[in-house]
Amino acid sequence: MDATKTKIKEILVNDLKLQGVKAEEISDSEPLFGEGLGLDSLDAVELVVLIQKHFGVQIADMEEGRKAFASIEALAAYIFEHRA
Amino acid sequence: MGPDPEKKDPSLGAESSAGPLPVLLVVPVYNHGATLSGVVRAALATGLPVLVVDDGSNDGGSEGLEQLDCVVHRLPENRGKGAALLTAARLAAEQGYRAMVSVDADGQHDPADALRLLAEAAAGAWPAIIIGARQMVEPTVPKSSLFGRAFSNFWVRLECGADLADTQSGLRLYPLPELLALPLSRSRYDFEVEVVVKAVWAGLDVRSVPVSVHYPPAGDRVSHFRGVVDNWRLTRLHTLLFCRCLLPLPHPRVVPPPPRGATAAVATAKKPWQTLKRLTGEHSSPFWLAVAVWLGIFLGALPLIGVHTVVVIYFSCRLHVNSVAAVAASQFCMPPLVPVLCIEVGSFLRRGELILDLSWQRWLLEIHQRLFDWFLGSLLVGPLLGFVGGGLVYWGSRRLQLRRGRLYGGGDGGAEGGADGEADGAALSGVSGRSGESGLRRGSEESGLSGESHESGESGGSGGGRGLAKRLEGLGHWFFYLSMRLFGHRGGIALLAPVMGCYLLGSRRIHRLSRHYLRRRFPGAGRFALWRHTFYNLFSFGLVLVERGWLGVDRQARLKSDFPHRDRLAAAIARGKGVVLLTAHVGNWQSALAHLGELPVPVHAIMRYDQQAAAKHFFDLRPGPPPFSLINAEGDFGGMVEALAALQRGEVVTIMGDRYVGGPAATVDFFATPVRLPVAAYQLAAMAGAPVLVLLAAQSGHGRCRLQFWEDILPAQVGRAERPAMLADCAGRFSRALEEFLHHHPYQWYNFYNFWRQ
């Protein structure tokens, strides 16, 4: 789990290129979108693609996406659950 | 105040009445034994002295009243409600009363409402007849009563010009000296109509206040209104009143005429423009405009050679309808078309043959021999044409009124002007399939030039009348579809052209809204050029509406479409990375979407709720499965996650690229002015590696449209920092493609709002 969380944070910083943020500064429970990290819908699309690329996990609709995108923690749990 | 227990022998002395105006409450009764005592008790509770006039009852009804503090006056034989009221009025006047309130004995009125009438009398001009207008909202109100009332109101309005909500109500306040001075001749149920009309003629003020009404369920209702006899009486009365009202003789007045301000006449002569404005605005509700148009066409069709205009003005003034509309409508019957039609019809009626010889000799030199044919034919053609013209005018002006209502009702700024006729399309196609009542009502609420389908549900309803008006409007829609059915889309166009003309002439708003685009598309165009462009723009929009309506009405109808780039789309799909089809609200875009059903992969459309509703309507009616599934643009992230998944499966996603309604956007130049455009499509394509094809469908003639790719964009996958630039670049290419399209099809832009402020 922790490895997944760290990996997600690295993806956010290195691939999504979040500026002015370091991987270790991102808290596990912070919301990804809106308030917290300030990601938007364009980032959401990109994040879906990145998670596919790195973990092979598909988020096909927002039924699933809504809980997966709640925080780093939730996303890690989602990936953990859906990883083959 | 209750009845005085001391007073064993109640007198009718005026001094015992309440308030400054000596008022008597009168209950005329004929065989209403069951309800009478209850009514009298309630009447006494108002504190007014009560007189019961027993109009020769033979059910012993008024016998149970000895215990009550009221006066009963028995008439030896039944002479009718009117006669009973006049008897009561005479009695009351002798006793020094100045006014009386009549209350029906059948219990439909609440006698306490008499006080509301008194309050109204005190608040406005006196003397006046105050009518308690019954609020007929109970489900037990019989339909025949509602119709009878509307019918009576209509004729009273024509005869005396007074717009009253309930001309048949029995709950009224009458001023006694004036009532007795009126030349009344009716004694039964027709009394109530007669008294209103003659009172207005005599210069009395007639007003109404809303009152409650109670209709017991059908079984318990006792009414002595005899259908055939009393309706015949009413018809006869209205005929007489109508004829009297057309006569140019003065009416006897019971109140002194108001001091004639010399100003009115002078102003009329000195200020022709203001006079015209006033005349145009008179009696200009949609319904009464339609009546004026009917009258104008009817009179215009009659063979009144040389005096048409004078007759039309005379009649429209006498009947209190809009004279400008009536005169304008009568011009429609100018020779040769309508007179020839009338003569042909008349000839056919008389001799069973048409006049096929179209020579001067026959039509011009022998016109005197054709006069009777003309007259006979006009009696048939005039009213029918009048209904068509009146219907059209009603329909058109209702549209205008609804939209004005919306304008002032404060719809939200952005969507308010969002006029692309999605809703119209929905209405057009929606009604055709299910021509039931609900379909019509839906249509009538949803259509209108500003296609705000999701708001119009609330605001459209508040804009206008109910009941009869709704049904008439439904009739207008029905007529539109009927003519489409009968005459194909040409019939629709023929009907739509005058409506568009009305918009163009009558609505400043449509000019204001279309100018945002037209000024930029045609820079340097003068006032008149802009006018012309607006007309073409609007007419092109109308054509698309008719086209869509036609597709909905006629299931066999197919748009002939040229799609020269079909192969390019097939090739793009074959690459398996998905395709983003970017369209815009131009041309016949819904038809463009209809063609997507023929693709080898599923098609998804990202749409907002209102677009969905319109599109669903449109495609539900077409045979076969819907051409695409919908992704809700109002979901999380604007449906982008779902759209991405579809693209990754190699499927097609269509998005509207022009309207910005929220979400990510870029500002680019469009006709040399910066505008915000949505950019989600490019990001989706970039992430999926899919191409963006700009597909726009131009209306290219009746029943034809041309689908064409105006731009291929392959958005690059870039980092977060470069992303805005990439998206703006893509949006810029889309904007240039749209400019290019509009360069070829300048009038097919249907965003009737300030697009540059979105």
- Main pleated-sheet profile of chain A: none
Cα(first) to Cα(last) distance of chain B is: 65 Å
Unreliable residue runs of chain B = 1-19, 406-469
Give the percentage of residues in beta strands of chain B: 5-15%
CATH uppermost class of chain A: Mainly Alpha
Mean pLDDT of chain A: 82
Number of strands of chain B: 16
Structural class based on helices, strands and sheet pairing of chain A: mainly alpha
What is the CATH T-level topology of chain A?
Answer: Non-ribosomal Peptide Synthetase Peptidyl Carrier Protein, Chain A
Structural overview:
Chain A is globular and about 35 Å long. The mean pLDDT of chain A is 82. Helices cover 56% and strands 0% of the residues of chain A. Chain A has one domain: ACP-like (Non-ribosomal Peptide Synthetase Peptidyl Carrier Protein, Chain A), CATH 1.10.1200. Chain A has helices at residues 2-15, 41-55, 62-68, 72-82. Chain A is an all-alpha fold. Chain B is an alpha/beta fold and 758 residues long. Chain B folds into four domains: 14-216 and 226-245, Spore Coat Polysaccharide Biosynthesis Protein SpsA, Chain A; 263-393, no CATH class; 404-553, no CATH class; 560-757. In chain B, the strands form three sheets. Chain B has a seven-stranded mixed beta sheet with strand order 3-2-1-4-6-5-7, with helices on both faces. In chain B, strands 8-16-15-9-12-10-11 form a seven-stranded mixed beta sheet. A two-stranded antiparallel ribbon of chain B has the order 13-14. In chain B, strand 10 (603-607), helix 25 and strand 11 form a beta-alpha-beta unit. The A-B interface holds A 16-19, 40-46, 48-49, 58-62, 65-66 and B 635-638, 640-642, 644-645, 663-664, 679-680, 683-684, 687-688, 719-721, 723, 727.
